[in-house]
Amino acid sequence: MNTRLKLDMFICKHDVDYTENTITEVELESLCSRFELNIGRELRAYLLKYGYLGYKHVEFFGINSVQRDMSDMIRKTLSFRKEFPNRKNLIAIKGGRDDDQLFVNEKDEVIRYVPYRNQFICVKNSLFEYILEVFENI
Asked: Bridge partners of 101?
């Protein structure tokens, strides 16, 4: 069974939060063009199907049709780009404390920013795998 199907099953069986107001493919393309977002297949599927995901105390950023360019994902990504203009390929997926900043790149790799080392570390090669692993371990 592929990871996306496993994640779908987890969401169905647990109290996972997501939006009913997902964006359309056209809206997503417009935002990607406007903000120069190069998104991978998994992130695209995540945004179109769920908008965002939250489970217990963990929330992954997203975009919905109500907030659109004011969504956390867009705002946090743009803020991050001001500080790191050479990292435009990274899109904010989770934030919070300084040691808990996660991004996803155009290959759907999940990247953690470690500020005290000023390092970017790939923690997982799949966005869906990362989300499922986090949710299963809560």
From this structure: 113
Q: Are 71 and 79 in contact (CB under 8 A)?
A: no
CA dist., res. 103 & res. 57, Å (int) = 18
How does DSSP classify residue 71?
S
DSSP 25: H
Residue 80 vs residues 3, 7, 76, 101: alpha-carbon distances, Å: 29, 28, 6, 10
Count of Cβ atoms closer than 10 Å to residue 77 Cβ = 21
Question: Mean pLDDT across the stretch 111-129?
Answer: 92
Please give the Cα distance from 135 to 105 (Å, whole number): 21
Q: What average pLDDT does the segment 10-34 reach?
A: 95
| Digit-coded pLDDT (tens) for 92-118 | 999 866 556 899 999 999 999 988 888
pLDDT the model gives residue 61: 97
The C-alpha torsion from 24 through 28 and 33 to 36, rounded to 10°, is 180
Residue with tokens 């217990």: 56
Measured in degrees and rounded to the nearest 5, phi and psi for residue 110 equal: -90, 125
